[in-house]
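hi!! sorry for the late reply, been swamped w classes. u asked for the two structures so here they r. pasted raw, havent cleaned anything up. first the sequence of the first protein and right below it the tokens
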Amino acid sequence: MTRRVIATIASGSLAIAGVAATLVMPAGAQAPARATSVRQATTPADAGVIPRMSDGHPDLSGVWWGGSDVGGPGFSPGGRAGAPGAARGAPPPTFASLYKPEAAARAKTLSDKDDPTLRCIPTAFGTLNVSLFDVGAVGQIVATPKLVVMLSETFHGFRLVPTDGRPHRDDIPPAYRGEAIGRWSGDTFVVDITNFTDNTWISAEGRVSPHSDRLHIVERYRLVNPGALEIDATLEDPEMLTAPWVVPKQTLVRAPFETIMALNCSGLETQALMDAATRQK
């Protein structure tokens, strides 16, 4: 079965049933239209003064994407220079290529029926090599001097990143998306994420990619200019991987709308996919 991102209209609201993989729409389907603001999307070529918060650090606030909705006109996992999938030359190592033998053996036992996203459970690391997206292709950042909020359209997802110098906590349970703390290194925002559960997937490459609860992610966000956000990330998992996975650099652009949409996921939308997955041999 081809795992897909399916957009449907349910109970008067848009319902997204995301399965992070090839990121294509069903035949003949189109992504829902978005209401855009009068402001046009800013591209990486647009030069200008970097917006800054009251404390002087760059203001990362905005809606960020690769240039189009999943399945919408013009969408492509690659195509835009610097966008997800647009790297040239020899492909870099993938997450799965770094598996230890026991991890590779475990991965071979998993199939679509084991995909947690069918039950609206988020990924540990998002599609298109962008954690902010989770399952989807749009995310929003709301930045303040003491807290950076990262919002994903799918699975009601959010990540709260305090920037007040606190360490990781040892008094909270593991979470699907881990626990994040942030700091500034010059104009680069560094996010350190630990304390994951071990029952989600790494879905950056459209394949079954399990991980352990020792997963550790470090992300770096930098405004190249007012309309371009550059993201670097490195994933470590000493129980699963032989070496850290250095994620290919991504560059997102500002979307031509002011806010993300509320995309509901209850599991009902994916029932047909779950039923089909259980019949696989």
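now the second protein. again sequence first, tokens right under
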Amino acid sequence: MLNNEPEKNATLRRSLYSVLGLVLMVLLFWASYANSKFAPKSKDFWEYIATTSIDKWLNNWPKWLDMPLQPWANSGLDWLVINYGIYFDMVNDFILSLVISIKDILTYVPWPLVILGVCLLTWFVSGKKRGTTLLVTLCMFFIGFLSPKFWDKALETTSIMLIAIFICLLVGIPTAIWMSRSARVRNAILPVLDLMQTIPSFCYLIPGIMLFGLGAVPAIIATVIYAMPPLIRLTDLGIRLVDEEIIEAADSFGASSKQKLWAIQIPLAMPNIMQGINQCTMMALAMVVIASMIGTRGLGDEVLLGLQQLNVGRALEAGIAIVLLAIVLDRITQAYGDRIQERTH
């Protein structure tokens, strides 16, 4: 006789979710009615429904049917600032000190040594590919050659991006591992990732400014939210695509879940993980100009000034410098990913 318990449990869960969804919709309708100043009084509600013409219902959305998301969000943010503002200040000071330290280190090193260091890094991570190394070295040189002021600004942008990418790795990879090991967790997190990628990036800056003030820190937080989803998706996909026969062979040798993860799944998924890091880096760099609108220094600052002054040449120079920095970061991460993929095959 077949065991139907799993199917019964799945049906029960679906029914429970449907009931919870219905209850949530009723609560939202009640909240919109109770918080609207246009809502008819409760004793006149059914009379209002009966006397309102169908044409009015169809052509004009009822003003009282309005979910009060805006006051909820504002009051929730105010509550966070009032009750936990000191903790956000501590996070702000810590991240800002990291950004300043990395920027000071990069700007303290003479520029030829920085270019030489990037050249050597590209040479080794690319597997000694001369074409990739030459391209990256020339791009680094031309950032300063376009205008000397771009050199320090490029290093400042790089320091902000390094912090943002590090936070993405710190949060994104464990989240992706968690998703790959549980279908229920994946189904819960995927809509959140869709939301993070769909909401315009400007929307992330507003709560960031209220919680952390102007400057680099809210830009880093917004960059992390915007750039993390592709890293999580590609890492999760890479872990789940590991051949089942390899996993079964590991099981036959008595490997634990932790051993399978770190000795088999993560190494085999490294090409996907590096592709995720590459996409994360490119999306983080796309936030440079937007972040400059809230006082973040760097190459995006020059693009914004060119826009404000209608100075085409200034904006063009800064835009080319951003493209050159993007080529450098893209080629380094992509070359390392290709090298890992060749080694894996």
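hope this helps!! also noticed smth abt the second:
The chain has two domains: 5-59, 72-344.
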